[in-house]
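hey
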């Protein structure tokens, strides 16, 4: 077959098969790259030099189109990049709430033991001042003691609690 006849035969196959291949690619990968893949299919068939010897050019074009899709899938898989945006609300590390709760319970228990170990009057003065928020003057008036007595008991309570590593 001469080059001119071969060229005309190829043009004829192109005109008859181009729409079918375009439809094939659109179904497989969408309209974006379909026309480029049709052109690539015909270019590969022409460059192969086998067009002159084909008994079934339509079948050869279909097989070439399928191979292009396989190559495209491999290329996309090889070049695939997974992007995982950081969602700080979801991905940030969480504070150890459970551990904090356990530590708080242990601290309360140690605080209670240390308070119970205080002399009764010292414990009462300390709790009136710290728990009820009373001033030294108010505590003194309620108990009928002076300012220096309140200071003495507060210092003793704080020293005992500090010794228990609570202050």
């Amino acid at each position: 077959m001469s080059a001119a006849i071969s060229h005309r035969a190829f043009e004829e196959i192109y005109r008859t098969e181009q729409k079918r291949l375009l439809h094939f690619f659109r179904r497989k990968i969408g309209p974006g790259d379909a026309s480029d893949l049709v052109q690539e299919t015909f270019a590969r068939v022409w460059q192969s030099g086998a067009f002159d010897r084909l008994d079934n050019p339509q079948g050869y074009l279909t097989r070439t189109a399928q191979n292009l899709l396989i190559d495209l899938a491999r290329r996309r898989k090889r070049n695939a990049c997974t992007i995982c945006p950081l969602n700080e609300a979801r991905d940030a590390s969480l504070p150890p709430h459970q551990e904090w709760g356990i530590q708080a319970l242990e601290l309360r228990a140690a605080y209670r033991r240390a308070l119970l170990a205080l002399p009764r009057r010292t414990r009462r003065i300390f709790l009136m001042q710290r728990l009820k928020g009373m001033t030294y003057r108010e505590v003194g008036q309620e108990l009928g003691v002076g300012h220096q007595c309140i200071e003495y008991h507060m210092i003793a309570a704080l020293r005992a609690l500090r010794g228990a590593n609570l202050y």
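The first helix runs from residue 3 to 29. The two ends are 103 Å apart (CA to CA).
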